[in-house]
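We give the entry.
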Amino acid sequence: MLRSHFKMADEGFGMSAENRRAEQERAALRNEIRRDYQRKVNDPKAKGMVLDPAVVRWNHARHSSYQFFKATPKSSLVGFFCGLLPPLGLIYIFDRYKKYEKRMFAEGKWTKPRALLRG
């Protein structure tokens, strides 16, 4: 029983040898980048600022997002419902209320409020 458990762990939890080797190479690359960054951060003779490559990539992605934007049906619907529908809905509601208010004053059901400045 114990031997079969270790055999399963050696198999890489169902990963093929090629996938396991690729994952090990990626992990080694990540570790090398991490070691290089830590070496730069902790260098007492270093002058200036140490740039984190992940932060540089993040900032580039944020600032260049409009160059690579592609309108899709989903993005168009989101733009319509979040950018166009609320202002149009508010304009419609205020217009209806203004008409209702004028009708109520015309029918005499409401009286206009007294102006504070006119006495």
User: Anything to note?
Assistant: DSSP finds four helices and no strands in the chain.
